[in-house]
Amino acid sequence: MGLRSLVMCEEDDVSKDMKFLVVDDFSTMRRIIKNLLNDLGYANVTEADDGQTALPLLQAGGFDFLVTDWNMPGMPGLDLLKAVRADPKLAKMPVLMLTAEAKREQIIEAAQAGVNGYVIKPFTAVTLKEKIDKILEQRATAA
Amino acid sequence: MTSAIDALRAEFGPNIATLAGALAAGDERLFLSELDALVHRRERTLFSELRKLTGTLQSALDRFSVDSRLVDLAEKEVPDARQRLDHVLKLTDEAAHRTMDLVEQSGPLAERTAREAGEIAELWRKFRARKIQVDEFRSMIDRLDLFLESSREDMDKVRGNLSEVLMAQGYQDLSGQIIRGVMKLVLELETALVDLVRLSRTGPNAAPAPVSDGMHRGFGPTVPGIDNGPAVSGQQDVDALLLGLGM
Fold this sequence. Notes:
A: 5 strands; B: mainly alpha
């Protein structure tokens, strides 16, 4: 069963209008994530190739969800996460780390920096969906 | 041997002759001052030799620090890099096969749907032209039922395969990160070799070993057989770890 049929089983809700920012230095990976998000019904996806380009976009406003890699030239994902949490306007933004970084201490560090989810590459479409859903669920109950 | 003794004779002969002369003449002051000059000269050569020796030792030590970095690169990191590239080969190989498998699976499904649609369309045209027999009409309806069901299933499968083809392209990111790591190593190796060449020409000022900032910038993908410290083995491990942290 394809991912789309997974999606079609669910009723659409307002969260499908959310605006995503996908940050990864590899354009192939950005395309993959963007396609998966589209498959999940999230049509509004913008891309950035590292933290340095992502941060001004985020600060300009309008984004609801950040998906970021860790290992990038310029500003790494961990620094981007810290910058987002340190910015009062962005502090509450859901951040999903999608990375090949697999050290236990790194995952702990990301958690301490306030990441909302951590998906390790290579990943599956189902995992990505699960983690996004979970983050949104938690936000819905917290709100 | 002869030339060495000749050199000594040339260097010390006059002093010794003066010494012997002073001794024979009973000139104590001349003897002592000449003896002092002789000892002083000997000490000077000794010091200059010692200085040379110290210089050699210093450059040997400098070279040793470059050497030990080179040894480290040659013994550990170059074999590691080979293993990393091997892993890249494996990743690209798997992704290519996975993609081709999915394409091969999808082709016949699309073909079957197209063929069946063509055949039903043929019957449909006869029906529209009111040239269809009753039993032909019944068979068309049955085939149409089957076709609607099977084409939905087939296209669902094709759609799923396309999603997986998309996912399989993730190898480019993972292998790209590993290749970048190896390129960094090659650059470091080049720098160490250039330093070595420079040292063997002139001497000191070895370049310091680069400092790793993996914890901050990231280490890149895990490569089987290369240990960089405790790592998780997959998403389940990550989830368990985060759950333990209260997430």
